[in-house]
Amino acid sequence: MPDIFGLRLRLLTVSLAAVLVVAVESVAVISASNSALPGDALYPVKLPVEWWRLAFEFSDTGKADLHLRYAERRADEIGSLVTSGDPLAAKSAQEDLQNSLAVAAQIAGRVEDQQEVAVLRQRPERTASQALATLQSAVEGAPEHSRDAATDAFIASSEAFGSTIESVSASAPA
Length: 174
Description:
By secondary structure, the chain is mainly α. It has one domain (about 35-170). The protein has helices at about 5-35, 45-55, 60-85, 85-110, 115-140, 145-170. The chain is flat. It starts with a helix and ends with a helix.
């Protein structure tokens, strides 16, 4: 008579091992996607991971902060793309940066807690400072054929950050 218990135990062990391998591989792919740029094979993994993080962030302050972080990431991506000579992909990242900033400003306008408001008022300025420094370096290091795109990205980002800072400051009571 076959050992049913032993067979089930082996089947369970193999199944758990397979689930563990898939989980570890998924984490590895998600981690690797963090440095992906628009046009890279893993970039389509990066954005949904960001969306999931937003979906599981329940405070408005946290969501606004994530959008500002994502805007800073897009600025880093733009910098990498223009210095590598890919102004078309940089344009797409620029649109994503502006969208993240607009959403962050909109969410910040809903925050009522004064301590959270104070934190949110400072975050866009720090983010802008870092992102614009990155883009300024990109303008300086861009190949000739993408220098105009780099300059346009810097100007558009500067305007978008300025608008976001104004909006957050105006919506937050002093």
